[in-house]
Write a structure and sequence with these properties.
The complex is a heterodimer of chains A (614) and B (210).
Chain A lengths: L2 H8 L26 E7 L3 H4 L3 H11 L4 E7 L3 H9 L18 E5 L6 H10 L15 E5 L15 E3 L3 H18 L3 H8 L5 E2 L4 E5 L5 E6 L7 E2 L27 E4 L1 E2 L9 H5 L4 E2 L2 H15 L3 E5 L9 H15 L2 E3 L10 H10 L4 E6 L3 H6 L6 H13 L4 E8 L6 H20 L9 E8 L16 H14 L5 E5 L2 H11 L5 H10 L13 H10 L5 H4 L14 E2 L4 H12 L17 H4 L8
Parallel strand pairs in A: 1-2, 1-3, 3-4, 4-5, 9-19, 10-13, 13-14, 15-16, 16-17, 17-18
Antiparallel strand pairs in A: 5-6, 7-8, 11-12
Chain B lengths: L3 E9 L8 H15 L15 E3 L8 E11 L5 H11 L4 E7 L8 E11 L2 H9 L4 E6 L2 E6 H4 L1 E6 L2 E7 L9 H11 L4 E12 L7
Parallel strand pairs in B: 3-10
Antiparallel strand pairs in B: 1-3, 1-4, 2-3, 5-9, 5-10, 6-7, 8-9
The chains are: A alpha/beta (614), B alpha+beta (210).
């Protein structure tokens, strides 16, 4: 019986079966007889989430453009589907071939958030493979991982054969060519890994020995077999000409981001000190308006989507944002396509922009002041002032909006109760502003405050900082609830349980592999889903492994401590991160990269200043 | 604007049988946008391509005579319409024909199905020949008892094969899968690899819906 036949037996017994069968518009099918390299691209979460991820769309198309190389999509099945698969001996399969991924040459995971780590084990197991890399002696499949979380891959180091640090557009193909060659030569897995470690951007955890001090901090990290002391992140130098897919796979069912997406720039000039992406994706590079226009048209026409989103860490920082919007509006109006612009900054919020967004769809506006007082905003280097917030809100209210969503972070370094009061005060000032406007929209104002908890991340100036303990976080959350205007403001908080685990995994070391394994054995998976998350099982796992999560979460780290990720080079110097950390404690902001170079070190790789400062 | 009504016939087979009716609607909207066919769009704040399906097809059932109606704003020949549709559609949905609509969807009376399956053949034959085949059917008013036998006409039967009709239409509709669910429930045995295809849609006058 073929897998298709087997699937036909079970698919009507599961929710939304179309996400388990492939065959969508623009999905790529190749003749298996002509395929020399099969890459099973796994997003360790469900179809609805994974299919929304831009990086996977880019690399999927990139690999499939190569004759003989076949990239397939693989997602984590929900429990109802997993149960049916196990009952009917169906191993995890690729959506294109409907063939088990254990027969692929590569099984690649993209790691976008730490809470997807347990899904790696769940998916390998469902694929019929041992979860530990050492228990997979064969040359293929090579299990690899990429994405932002591999800047500290130590917690998953025991499960993957290699990691890809940085942007995958070039290095993925280099890696595939190497494996193709090794297969032809008949080399073994170890030899392949040794050779792979010589490719810039490739990290082979098994080639590094970690020694610990008595207090469990790291004593040394020693490479062997010619692996580099520091693994250097890969970046695309000519971003305007980087590969971008002409089309996307269009899912049958609705997914989280069901629209065309064009990446307008990569990197960020802002340097918010809590934001890992803002440091990891440096240097700042943008596409020309012409390239963006071409990619927009191509994507809309080939997918039939009626909405296109211009995405990046901070789209309004594009040097030609006004011309870009004007150009795209000409197309979108004629083609009846909606333009959407996520991630706009408060200080760039002009009346023109409001009108442009409004002509698309009138919904609420979202701002992210992140902290309640100017002092704390200076600490985190969120270079916006209360005046910026008020101006933007005024423009929005005058433009007919009466709902504002505000993002704040709780538990930031140096935070006190005064800063929490500041959140409530800022909300009240916005409410007062609303009622002071004569031509305000009908109905009252609604503010939703989304209060997340600060999680210190590697390669940020806050990598040295502790996360406040549970008691402190709960007390501050409670305090905000007491002081905020409850009639106009609704507050949603992140769950302590979830941020606690994320914080432990984010700055964890290799010893956490045992914890992840134990938690998975206890049934932990789909940790990003409230209904499946089992915090108590995770804590049991920590306990059984004799590891206290507080060691990773709540312990301040000194500047000279060896971090578990110190053998990764994301093109920033540690001196820069220390300097920024010191400035944070003095509440001194750093100007954005366009105004002045902060000396992070990335320009050494670019070979010239990132911006023309003359 | 002068428009011309067109009925587009299509098949939905293979991997596409798992597309729900709501998702099929969105799929055709996008495909029409891709095809750039001159299809009339609704006016107003959120303009969208105007299409209506004659008769929804149950999830998991294949169909070879499905249809939807749309309005063309420009004259376009049948062959071009079909080929432009097919260039824009996923593989397992194929447009087979297009013509001016003759009948109204309200005239639809029944659907003809072909089922292939593996099960205990003797038990299935006995099940089919029983006087009543009672099952529960979800309706707007709750769950109702229904005798499938009363509505079933068998057109052909052999081991692992059944050709039959069930009532269809806007008023009363029976999902073909119910028959096989009832068998599994009554006998406590399983049906393997059930494949059902809707092969014809008939109107009250006995003619194929066209």
């Amino acid at each position: 019986m073929t897998y298709k036949d087997k699937l036909d037996r079970i698919l009507l017994k599961v929710q939304k079966p179309s996400r388990y069968i492939g065959g969508e518009l623009n999905s790529v099918e190749k003749d298996p007889a002509k395929v020399t390299m099969r890459f099973a691209f796994c997003f360790p979460d469900t179809y609805d989430i994974g299919m929304s991820h831009l990086g996977m769309k880019i690399l999927y198309s990139l690999i499939n453009e190569v004759p003989g190389y076949w990239c397939e999509r693989v997602y984590m099945p929900l429990p109802d589907m997993e149960e049916q698969m196990r009952k009917n001996d169906i191993l995890l399969y690729g959506l294109e071939s409907l063939q088990p991924i254990k027969d692929a040459d590569f099984i690649g995971f993209t790691l976008q958030y730490e809470l997807s780590f347990s899904n790696i084990l769940a998916m390998l197991d469902l694929a019929g493979l041992p979860v530990y890399a050492k228990d997979r002696p064969d040359l293929t499949p090579i299990v690899c991982a990429g994405g932002p979380c591999v800047c500290n891959a130590e917690p998953i180091a025991d499960f993957v054969d290699l990691c890809i640090l940085g942007e995958g557009e070039e290095v993925n193909l280099e890696l595939m060519r190497l494996l193709e060659q090794c297969k032809a030569e008949g080399t073994d897995k170890h030899e392949f890994l040794v050779r792979a470690a010589k490719i810039e951007g490739i990290y082979v955890p098994s080639l590094y020995e970690i020694e610990y001090n008595d207090d469990c901090t790291i004593k040394s990290i020693t490479p062997s077999e010619g692996a580099p002391c520091k693994v250097r992140k890969r970046i695309i130098k000519d971003f305007d000409r980087v590969f971008y897919p002409e089309t996307f796979v269009v899912p049958f069912s609705e997914i989280v981001h069901d629209r065309a997406v064009v990446e307008v720039l990569r990197g960020c000039i802002r340097g918010c000190r809590f934001c890992q992406a803002g440091y990891l994706y440096r240097p700042f590079r943008e596409k020309t308006v012409e390239t963006i226009e071409k990619e927009t048209i191509s994507l809309c026409e080939s997918t039939g989507y009626d909405e296109v989103s211009l995405t990046s860490l901070s789209t309004s920082d594009h040097s030609e944002i006004e011309r870009m919007l004007g150009t795209l509006a000409n197309y979108s109006d004629a083609a009846r396509v909606n333009l959407s612009l996520p991630s706009l900054r408060i200080d760039s919020f002009s009346k023109e922009l409001v009108d442009r967004i409004k002509s698309v769809r009138k919904s609420g506006l979202t701002f992210a002041p992140e902290a309640g007082t100017q002092r704390l905003r200076d600490v985190i280097n969120k270079n916006i002032t209360e005046e910026n917030v008020m101006n933007s809100c005024r423009i929005a209210f005058e433009g007919g909006y009466n709902a504002v969503k505000l993002y704040f972070m709780l538990g930031l370094p140096t935070e006190t109760m005064e800063d929490i009061d500041g959140i409530a005060d800022l909300c009240q000032k916005i409410i007062d502003l609303f009622y002071s406007i004569e031509n305000r929209p009908k109905g009252g104002i609604k503010i939703s405050v989304s209060l997340s908890t600060f999680i210190p991340k590697p390669f940020t100036p806050f990598q040295f900082e502790p996360q406040p303990t549970e008691d402190v976080i709960r007390e501050r959350q409670k305090h905000l609830m007491e002081v905020v205007n409850k009639k106009r403001v609704t507050v949603s908080r992140s769950h302590f349980d979830v941020t606690h685990l994320e914080a432990a995994l984010a700055r964890g070391d290799r010893r956490l592999s045992a914890v992840i394994y134990a938690a998975w054995k206890k049934g932990c998976k789909l940790d990003g889903w409230t209904e499946y998350y089992k915090y108590d099982k995770w804590m049991e796992a920590f306990k059984e492994c004799g590891i206290d999560p507080a060691f990773y979460v709540n312990r301040p780290r000194s500047y000279d401590e060896i971090m578990p990720w110190d053998h990764m080079d994301v093109l920033l110097t540690k001196e820069f991160l220390i300097r920024e950390n010191m400035q944070a404690h003095e509440a001194r902001p750093t100007p954005n990269c366009r105004k002045a170079c902060a000396g992070c070190g990335v320009n050494k790789c670019v070979g010239r200043p990132c911006f023309d400062y003359s | 604007m002068e428009t011309k009504n067109i009925r587009v016939f299509f098949s939905k087979t293979g991997r596409a049988i798992y597309i729900s009716h709501l998702d099929l609607y969105r799929l055709f909207q996008r495909s029409i946008k891709r095809s750039k066919l001159p299809v009339w769009e609704t006016e107003g704040f959120n303009p969208h391509v105007y299409i209506t399906f004659a008769l929804p097809l149950a999830l998991g059932t294949a169909g070879i005579c499905e249809s939807l109606d749309l309005k063309l704003t420009e004259e376009i020949c049948r062959e071009e319409l079909i080929s432009r549709f097919n260039d824009a559609l996923p593989r397992d949905i194929r447009v087979t024909d297009a013509a001016e609509p003759v009948m109204k969807p309200t005239e639809i009376a029944l659907s003809e199905y072909e089922a292939r399956f593996e099960c205990d053949n003797a038990a299935f034959a006995e099940f089919l020949s029983s006087e009543h085949i009672m099952t529960e059917k979800k309706t707007k008013r709750g769950i109702a008892e229904l005798d499938l036998k009363e509505h079933l006409s068998i057109l052909g039967q052999s081991d692992g094969y059944l050709r039959f009709t069930f009532p269809s239409g806007t008023e009363f509709n029976i999902n073909a899968g119910l028959l096989f669910d009832a068998f599994e429930k009554q006998t406590g045995t399983e049906i393997y690899t059930l494949r059902i295809t809707r092969t014809a849609i008939k109107c009250r006058n006995g003619e194929n819906f066209h």
